[in-house]
Design a protein that fits this description.
about 325 residues; alpha+beta; Ribosomal Protein S5, domain 2; eight-stranded mixed beta sheet; four-stranded antiparallel beta sheet; globular; binds cytidine-5'-monophosphate; Ribosomal_Su5_D2-typ_SF; ATP-binding
């Protein structure tokens, strides 16, 4: 039976601005997304049956139909029934390294890997836009997870413009093991607290887009001015998540006390990250934050920026 083994990287948000609400119930966003070399390994193995089966050891990852990776397989099956007839189902093995419900797009990246892996397994010959269109139907972050690197994401987060690679930056990620934030909750709360102003101000999308403030960070990336990039780090969702989760606020403040280039909550949280320019410094900052907070529930990861999305895993496929 054929199989493909893929690496599905996590992402962080260097910038997340909520511009307004959309008729489809989502929010109009302007984001800068960055892939990092913390990734799950996803193996897609043809199983000669009529089913997809998810295998994952992580206690918080469901192995049923609610898993986004399963929904990705189902979407390909319904879109390309002839290929499914010909090639049949698959076993999907997820080796989880990316923390769950953490604002790092772990679930989205797994789904992106399933799309890429099944596309190869079923010899579909899809173009990049065709694959991106399927990805958009599944979730806002999934198109980015396929291509990865550094990108400006607008619309729901699914309209991508690649940006020049940011090289040489390291990220220290920290998350309380027992804490997860629902993305839907974060956006809904933001809408409740801050939505009235932009709705009243203008319902015209073109007018809203004029209010976008991502220009400086995009320019800094274009100039590869990393010092300027870190000055522009911003995430609107901090306004609702930090007051609700005092531990996350404390973590954010603790990072600020040390020699970091910048610090921010990623996506809808609760992961907080800090940037630095070497692995040694990253290790040092990790130790300092760990010593300061001394909480056994706190987990850390160190990763570097990468310029790729879903990739074949090195070695046998
Ligand atoms: O697209 P995805 O399913 O990943 O989004 C998860 C949730 O985040 C959505 O159900 C929605 O509540 C919120 N969201 C939003 N606007 C976006 C992206 C996500 O309101 N642009």
């Amino acid at each position: 039976m054929r199989s493909y083994s893929l690496i599905a990287p996590a992402k962080i948000n260097l910038y997340l601005e909520i511009i307004g609400d959309r008729p489809d119930g989502y929010h109009e966003l302007s984001m800068v997304l960055q892939s990092i070399d913390l990734g799950d390994r996803v193996e897609i193995r043809a199983n000669g049956t009529e089913d997809f089966r998810i295998h994952c050891q992580h206690p918080e990852v469901p192995c049923d139909r609610t898993n986004l990776a399963y929904r990705a397989a189902e979407l390909l099956k319904t879109t390309y029934p002839n290929a499914f007839e010909q090639y049949g189902g698959a076993d999907i093995f997820i080796d989880k390294q990316i923390p769950v419900a953490a604002g790092l797009a772990g679930g989205s990246s797994n789904a992106a890997a399933v799309l890429v892996g099944l596309e190869m397994l079923w010899d579909l010959g899809l173009t990049q836009p065709e694959l991106q269109d399927l990805a958009s139907q599944l979730g806002s972050d999934i198109p980015f997870c396929i291509t990865g690197g550094t990108a400006l994401a607008t619309g729901r987060g699914n309209e991508l413009e690649p940006l020049p690679d940011l090289e040489g930056l390291y990220v220290i990620l920290a998350k309380y093991r027992s804490l997860g934030v629902s993305t839907a909750w974060a956006y809904q709360t933001y809408r409740q607290q801050f939505g009235s102003s932009y709705v009243r101000e203008s319902t015209d999308l073109a007018a809203r887009q004029k209010r976008v403030h991502s220009g400086p960070i995009v320019k800094a990336i274009a100039l590869r001015d990393e010092m300027k990039v870190v000055e522009c780090l911003h995430n609107d969702l901090e306004k609702v998540v930090l007051p609700e989760y005092p531990q996350v606020l404390k973590l954010r403040q603790t990072f600020e006390q040390f020699d970091v280039l910048g610090t921010l909550m990623s996506g809808s949280g609760p992961t907080v990250f800090a940037l630095t320019d070497s692995r040694e410094k990253a290790e040092q900052i990790r130790a300092q934050v760990q010593n300061t907070l001394g909480n056994p529930d706190l987990e850390f990861w160190i990763a570097k920026f990468i310029n790729t999305g879903i990739q074949l895993a090195p070695g046998v496929h």
